[in-house]
Amino acid sequence: MIIVNLDVMLAKRKMSLTELSEKVGITQANLSILKNGRAKAVRFETLDRICRVLDCQPGDILEWRQDEE
After folding, report:
1. Helix runs in the chain, H state only
2. Could you list the residue range(s) of the whole structural domain that residue 7 is in?
3. What is the CATH number of the domain that holds 56?
């Protein structure tokens, strides 16, 4: 399963979701869907913009974990 650590990166950068939304040019609602792990897909362009603003790598935001059965 893919875990989204956007909230962790926002906390490390001391940035709000609203501020990220303004800097990235994506609605707060769409970023919230991503942050809460409810997004079905993420465009590379979106990931690129988020990484530029947060000065991080995609792996800082997205993490793969094996499903626990």
Report:
1. 6-12, 17-24, 28-35, 44-54, 58-61
2. 2-64
3. 1.10.260.40
